Amino acid sequence: MSKLLESVAQPGQGTASIGQLARCVFWGFFGVRKKKDADHDVLNISPVQLIVAGLVGVVVLHLAVFAIVHVIVSSQDLEKRHLTELRELRELTTIQSPKLDQRDDVSIGTPNANLPSAT
């Protein structure tokens, strides 16, 4: 524990890798961290590195949330446009065509009813 107190008094030299910084920031956002790993991070990560990694993590998190929301909203907008197009198409197809002139002398049920007989 004395090493931990000494490292707080004299910050680490910044020997942490990018992966270690990313894990530290991720677990910091998540809010769960093992004591052993947290102590190791305190020994190897300088405060400047941690602040920069945290800011980069915030930017990446916000961009990811923005991208997810954009995809969801654009898919709903596309679905809405498709529904509007389908409604317009349905309206065009349900327009009633003008009724044909039906003559009284044409009988529809019997074939050749209006032709003169050959006899």
Task: Explain this structure.
Helix 2 packs across helix 4 (47-93). This protein has one domain. The longest helix has 47 residues, at 47-93. The chain is an all-alpha fold. The protein has helices at 2-9, 18-30, 35-44, 47-93.
Largest sheet: none
Instruction: Give the number of DSSP strands.
Output: 0
Task: Specify the number of helices.
Answer: 4
Q: Cα-atom Rg, whole angstroms?
A: 38 Å
Q: Stretches where pLDDT falls below 50 for ≥5 residues?
A: none
Mean pLDDT: 76
Strand and helix order:
HHHH
Distance from N terminus to C terminus (CA atoms, Å) equals 123 Å
Helix content: 55-70%
Principal-axes shape call: rod-shaped
In a nutshell, what does this entry contain?
The protein is built from 4 helices and no strands.
Question: Keywords, please?
Answer:
119 residues; mainly alpha; 4 helices; rod-shaped
